[in-house]
Structures are given as structure tokens and as C-alpha cells.
Amino acid sequence: MSTSESSYHHGALREALVEAGLRALEAAEGSAISLRELAREVGVSPTAVYRHFPNKDALLAALGDAGLTRLGAAQAEAYAAAGGDRAGFAATGRAYVRFALANPALFRLVFAHGKAGAAHAGKSDPAWDLLKRSTITLAGGEGAAADRLALQAWSIVHGLAMLMLDGRLPADEALIDTVIAPETFFPSANPR
């Protein structure tokens, strides 16, 4: 019996399948995820899987949602650890890039099958929500300045993450810290 089989409890099949899918995604870089294989790993029939995920796209969407939740949690933790404000804002960007590097297949899946921001089908996107809240605070309220800051910040950190994932830049901690510093977003600010 595998670890996931022994931890599966009746009524938690969907969660067990998502966890198994997340492990399979990283192990196979996403190319070999199979609903039948996940059923076997969790210890249920393929028919049971189809009650929760009618097809592979539904599973991938659920994995993308789980990825957004994990990304948002990593960013919220980084924001709090840095003390919020401008330092916390920059810390969320560094957490974004580090999350991408630590979870490349999941990160790519989030943007292939997920929908960020308001288009996220009414579901919460913790990463986007944190970005919007912090930009509204730092820009002094809602409006064009907050929207522009959110878009600029996301573009910078996503671009850096993709350049590193694609091997165009080295996945270097010092480079992450240098590129995503408070003064990147607030040129007149002193780093905290």
C-alpha cells in the first residue's frame, strides 16, 4: 500500500486525488498524468475518479487551483515575514519566483489551465488578491496607480521566473534578490 493509499479516508477522495496529482505532476513534469494511474495510486477504481473529475482537463484545473492556493500562501508568508509595506511587497515577488523554481511543472500548469484575477471564475486567487490589496495600500487607494503597480510587479516577477525556468537566466538567489528589491518598484524608497 502506498503512502497516499494509507492516508486516504472515505469522503476525502477528491483531496487525495489532487495531492496524488500534484506529486505526479512534479515527478513527470506534467506529461504523464493519467486519471487511471492516480486511481491506482490512491487505491480506488477509475470510475470513482470520474465522479470527481470527468476528464483530465478537470483534474488539471483542480491542480491549477491548488497551485494558486500554494503560491498565495507562500507569498502571504513572505509578506508577513518581511513586515509588510514595501519590503513585504518585494518579498512577495521573490516568493513568486522561488515558488516557480521549486515547482516548475505546477507553476507552468497554473498559467496554462488557471485564470488569474477577476477572470478566475468566481474562485479566490490568493496570489492575485494579495497583490491587489498590497498595491492598493501602497498606492494610497484604488485606481490607475494601484492597477499599474500590480501589473508592473506581476510582469517583472513572472518574466524573471520564466527566464529562469527556461534557462535564459541562471536560477540564482542573489539575482532574485537584486532584481526584486523594494527599489525596483519604488525607486525613491530606501530598502527596509
Sum this structure up briefly.
The chain has 192 residues and is an all-alpha fold. Helix content is 71%, strand content 0%. It is elongated.
Identify the notable features of this structure and list them briefly.
2 domains; disordered N terminus; Tetracycline Repressor, domain 2; mainly alpha; 11 helices; Arc Repressor Mutant, subunit A; elongated; 0% strand; Transcriptional regulator, TetR family; 192 residues
CATH architect. name of the largest domain: Orthogonal Bundle
Shape: elongated
Sheet with most strands: none
Q: Looking at this structure, what is the CATH superfamily of the largest domain? A: Tetracycline Repressor, domain 2
Please give the CATH class of the largest domain: Mainly Alpha
Compute the CA-based radius of gyration: 19 Å
Give unreliable regions as ranges: 1-7, 116-120
